[in-house]
Amino acid sequence: QIINIVALKNDMADRAQAEALLRQSQQDVEAALQREQQRRRLAETLRDVAAIVSGSLEQERVVDLILGQLEAVIPYHRATVSLLTGSMLTLIAGRDKMGGEVDAYAFPADKYPINAQALREKRPVLIADVALDRRWHDTIFTQGIRSFMVAPLLAQDAPIGTLAVGRVDAVPYTDEDAQTVFAFASQVAMAIRNAQLHAELGRRMALELMTARQI
Fold first, then answer.
1. How does pLDDT run across 159-176, given as a tens digit for each residue?
2. How many CB atoms lie within 10 A of CB 138?
3. What pTM does this model have?
4. Taking all residues of the chain, what is their mean pLDDT, rounded to a whole number?
5. Among 73, 77, 105, 185, which has the minimal tally of Cβ within 10 Å of its Cβ?
6. What is the pLDDT of residues 91-131, one digit of tens each?
7. The pLDDT of residue 44
8. Other beta carbons within 10 Å of 30
9. 2-55 vs 175-214: helix axis angle to the nearest 10?
């Protein structure tokens, strides 16, 4: 009888272990499916963004549309795009869900360490918890932000600005999120560069037309 009890206990332990392994396997499958769905959604969104970039040369409109597309794959409460001119960054567009305004203003590119690092290293920089990172400088515009990341806008491998996003909830951004933002930053840089080239071409044509009239 003792042997039967021991065998029963062993059988129950084996069953419990098997059930635990089955639950873990199911969770792993569900997580893999979720990651695959996220990758597909990101790929589809980036295709939409590429179409937006190639279909318009209006800088402000295109940048705003890209920020809207970004929201479909990366939750944020504040997102801004700033352009680099010399040693200054100028905020040109953004979205704020914290009740604040996103007004254009200029500030030194090295004023905030995280911006300076992203521009210098030409890669996205992530702060999972701003309360634990000395690089973080709180401002009246970013009060309440708990997780933050910034990616450089690169044109021919040269930094021309930044794309920054932040969230106020308790869910931290991940390295994968930072790479996603970097991908969107590339599209923003392309849109801005296309708009700048178009504007330059327009100025040249106007100058040549003026010169022709004078002749």
1. 999 999 999 999 999 999
2. 11
3. 0.71
4. 81
5. 105
6. 988 989 887 778 888 999 999 999 999 999 999 999 999 99
7. 65
8. 10
9. 0
Identify the residue whose tokens are 């635990």: 20
Rounded CA-CA distance 67/74 in Å is 10
CA distance 6 to 193: 74
Count of positions (residues) in the chain: 215
In this structure, are residues 108 and 89 in contact, taking their beta carbons and an 8 Å threshold?
yes
